[in-house]
Amino acid sequence: xxxVSLQEATRxxxxxxRAVEQGEVVTVTRDGKPVLDLVxxxxxxxxxxxxxxxxxxxxxxxxxxxxxxxxxxxxxxxFDDPLPEDFLLRPLP
Length: 93
Description:
The chain is α+β, with helices and mostly antiparallel strands.
């Protein structure tokens, strides 16, 4: 992330716009305090913005890099079965 003063942003707006088009985020400051961020434009179709969310591929790559091959090694067959009615009333083992 790049930080520039308001004066620099005014002078170098074209270069900053090119940097933002490449995906960089630029923070503009006034008297050393952040005032605004220049971020890439997100195309919309009508009123619908593209969905963000979790980057699953990046998460899997990170887990592999720290040695976790399978983050959920076992899921019981009955994991989503209804609980008994007295489940919350029974004491813990």
